[in-house]
Specification:
There is one protein chain. This protein has 549 residues and is mostly beta strands. The chain is 5% helix and 43% strand. It is built from four helices and 40 strands. The strands form three sheets. It has a 34-stranded parallel sheet that branches. The protein is elongated, with a radius of gyration of 26 Å. It starts with a helix and ends in a 7-residue tail after the last strand. The N terminus is likely disordered.
Length: 549
Amino acid sequence: MAGRLALAGAAAAPSGAAQTNPPTAAAGLSTFNVRNYGAAGDGKAKDTGAIQRAIDACFAARGGVVYLPPGDYLSGAIVLKSNVTLWLEAGATIWGSKAIADYNPRNLIFARDADNVGVAGPGIIDGNGESFWVQQDTYLIFPYLKLDYKERLGWGDILHHWWKPLDRPGPMLEFVNCKNVRIEDVLLRNASGWTVRPIACDNVLIRGITISNPYHGANTDGIDPTCCRDVLISDCNIRTGDDAICLKSSNEYGLKRPSRNITVTNCLLSTTCNAFKIGTGTQDDFENITFSNSVIYNDPGEPRTRTMAGIALESVDGGRTAGIAISNIVMRNVRSAIMLRLGNRGQGQAVAKPGALRDVTIDNVLATGTTMTNAITALPGHDIENLSLSNITISANEGGKLEWARRPIPEMPEEYPEAPMYGRLPSYGFYFRHVNNLKLRNVELRLEGPDMRPAVICDDVKNLAITGLAAASPSGEEPVLRFIGVRKALLQGCVAPPNAKAFIRLEGGETERIACLGNDFGEAEKAIDRDGGVPPDAVLEFGNRPGRA
């Protein structure tokens, strides 16, 4: 660990600096023991001043380690400074004060305009979050919930919306306009709001931390990098009530800038909201982002305790999101596996206009026990572009009804983007609308129970390629695939499931240039169905095994 701490830029102190019992893990670094600055460590006396004096002394000595030996340290706001690493030994716990007056600034640990700054060690930081929420008898209705909240209850609501936040500090750890930020190994628990937010920071490493917040914790996001560049988040275990890892570009400090060069890997994520998310604050751009080799999970239970969307990529405030690669993700008992939304909420814009969501690849995803459709939607004239989904297996257990299969879906350009925003969707696997250059390769859609809806709906999709699709047949009369106004599509190497009434149904006079090559439609009653508005020459078939009819 000495080498990892050295990355935080801790400098050697002058010979006169305090050198009391440096921790073995930080050998060779100047160490400032908070006990030498008056910390009681008994969980009763407030140690804010003592910890801050140790930090100030460390900073004055040109940097080093502020060391918390085993003990319970009750504290309000602590301000870190350049070249200072706060080290919590095993058995050391910082307990956030329950008094809001003790937070100036409004964070438990805060740094601004600091270089080479960090928090590390095997100890614990506890925000005493339960002191800052109260339980509600009714669902807390937020202004952005346009969909009738009663219609959401039981499948699309969120556990923490039954708890009301009080006046509270947060985020628990916040770093503003800092460079070379390191947060490693610590356990962060019971945050009163967001847990970790680096904002407008460069070169951020968050590695090996555990975040443990109760599922009912209101707005207890895990890690929210905001307007940051060159970020690595790895080997983290996050269980929380709100988004687990959420990239944003909204910035109340006025440091608006693109988020770029961000890698998230090797993490365990569990939440009642979104596991890996870009948005909702998307006034500026996101580019060069990866999410890989991670597990997203919930225990079996009522939907409100489950992850809303495992992967949620959103652009709704004019920003451009491009260059996103996601791979090797396993999900269990989430509601929706994948959700993409290009909208026009317009937050932070003088005149609202859509941004962009493009150049996204999602590969090698396994999701079981899902209970909501995967929605990939944009706006008329503003498509999601260049989306590739490959080697995806999703097993659904929503139990879709026939009346859902034909319900009209409004555009809702200004709606807050989240998986249940449209209500129940008319397909059980994927619902695509307003997408250009969409590739589906080796996608398998399974059913864990009867469902009356098509597996996939493509509405206003252009330049579509589907290769090797396997999907369970709907229980009723609906087709496996339903195309509405699809232009220029290629279906190749697909296999119709047993008992399918039709593999594809084509609708709309805009439908054109549909090529079906080398597919096995033999198990379907009918290979291709179409309504009367589809042009006679819209379909080209070659080398297909025909349906039974």
